[in-house]
Specification:
4 copies of one chain form a homotetramer. Chain A is α/β, with parallel strands linked by helices. In chain A, 44% of the residues lie in helices and 13% in strands.
Chain lengths: 201, 201, 201, 201
């Protein structure tokens, strides 16, 4: 395997990348100047030195004081709410929507429907500790998962987990209903049932 | 224009049909037996004799007693709720979801955002009369429109119209949030805001 | 089943039409004026009186002199070429491309790959008669079928059929190669092989 | 800009990559082990040492004897044919189709339709030199470009260029016609004209 094929192999493991696009990436990199390639290689290596998990919310982040991320250090955010997401990028989506001001926790995974060892699928020990540490201030845990079978199963498992380890805390889930842009004509039955049940003034 | 072209012209006016599919339809009909063609022609003509608007909900329907449709005659349905839709087929979608047991009213259109004569865009006289007739029993009007700019504008206009002609009646709209199958990663900001705001236990 | 459902049933049999679009068609027709519905019904019925198969090329067409269609009566067209297509609409496509001036014949079907009775799948008797009648003038039969397994199998069967019934006639097939708009990057191997083999000056 | 954002910026420049996927790539890399990151960074850096342009065909390749690539060194390949492509990956596609045994030359670009300085868009000096060096053996230059306006313009410019610098050499282009899988019904007029004109026995 030559140097071009070796790099193509590595790009093929990137999420959503097939053989054709992996090859295009390799030729894109091969056509860079040596200086540009060095920049890219250093940016990749740089993550090892500069990035680690926040001890509070478990997301990957630039190191701050005491291994804690910017969002967890922010005292203006509401300590009574904790929003659980599956992965780091979900925090970005929610921050971008600009409609939540509480704290976060990254589970690091979701739970397949018939999984036999669900506790191994998410950061259960870290979450347990977090719930204990915050027990005096925490009032609501928001479960923000996909509206898919796996997302719904994750919701069920996490609800039980939270009620067991933090019985006085309320749990909530994202509202279900019609999404922006949806035409009534193309809506599925389940969404329509949610939209009718969750109708608002 | 020959007989084939004439029929193709008529099929081209069908909703969502381009020239290619109109031609395919014509050849499909041309390849029917004369008896099958007669059946189709009679089914089309038959609508003139058998179908009319229900005087109560204004949907197109098979004639029943007193020009009133099956749903409006159904005494087991809840008279205190009236659900407004843009068009007949929306009733089918909602009945299919099996989550609403009140009455219906078909507006016969929706209102474009900058329209100067909104009252001409829907059955405003019929709706006014309906609201007056039902004033003793009606408690809630559900506005079930698409989550599009035109649907939202129709909601705004209709809310005002109802509050003017039936001030004691409540209005509600379909719940907004994440639809079945939506992954958190691909959600738009507005839907995420609704989903966070409308979160449920 | 009421009149609306009956018509919806008939529209569902149209090529490429699912339940949702069949319903939309029905409401489209139901919202026509009675005069418009009569026009549509008469255009459908009209095909029984005005349309029949051309005795020469077997396509559905407006009746002309001696049950022969306009293209077959056209003396400016080249009698030495006969182009075979699967269905009527293929003639339209080829006429539209404006690159063929010979005669046509509509097979009325194509032949599935493992079919046991291929002669029953196309107008074999009519084609045999046509080849005999034209034996003095006919020089080339063009087989114009899809570049799919079924189209290629139809080509094979028809080549053999023609060589049996008209041994002196040449057969030809549509050129294979890259289609307009195709980028080299997304071409399949087989097409590329054809394009390399059939390369032109 | 932190380390994660810096890497996301670099991934955004990759061909076909939007902001969402660039972010996913960054988190994918961030979740690698330090050893895996080192492997990726070294594979990228490695291209600077191991890869260069072949002096004969101008493609990027692993270094071989005399800065010449494996294909150009292969004496079993036909020296009388030279196939011109726009970019490196096109050679892969053609080799994969396994239907060409001559030599290659990579232009390094294609020529936009109204471009004022077409000679600057491809390796015109290198191609001129190549044509001169091979003048005793070369008989045919195959122009293998996309069937798009830009590809066709590139063909026109290159034909002229070759006839000017190597007047006795023949040029040819990829055959046009219907591609594998194409149904006659959905073919465009231009492709159908090519397919009729280039029909084969």
């Amino acid at each position: 395997m030559n140097a071009l094929e070796k790099l193509t192999e590595l790009f093929r493991r990137f999420p959503g990348i097939g053989p054709r696009q992996a090859t295009r990436f390799t030729y894109f990199v091969a056509n860079m100047t040596p200086a540009q390639r060095t920049l890219l290689a250093e940016a990749i290596q740089g993550l090892s030195k500069n990035i680690s998990l926040c001890v509070e919310c478990q997301r990957l982040t630039e190191l701050q004081i005491c291994s804690t991320c910017r969002l967890c250090l922010d005292e203006s955010r509401d300590n009574s709410q904790l929003l659980l997401v599956e992965k780091d990028t979900d925090i970005r989506s929610i921050e971008h929507a600009n409609a939540y001001t509480g704290k976060y926790f990254v589970l690091g995974g979701s739970i397949p429907v018939l999984d036999e060892n669900p506790l191994s699928r998410f950061r259960s020990e870290e979450l347990k500790r977090k719930l204990q540490n915050e027990s005096s201030t925490l009032k609501e845990v928001v479960l923000a998962f996909s509206a898919t079978p796996q997302g719904e199963h994750t919701t069920d498992v996490l609800k039980e987990f939270i009620h067991k380890h933090s019985p006085t805390v309320h749990t909530s889930v994202l509202g279900r209903g019609i999404s922006t842009g949806t035409e009534l004509e193309y809506i599925d039955d389940e969404t329509l049932r949610h939209a009718l049940k969750n109708r608002v003034e």
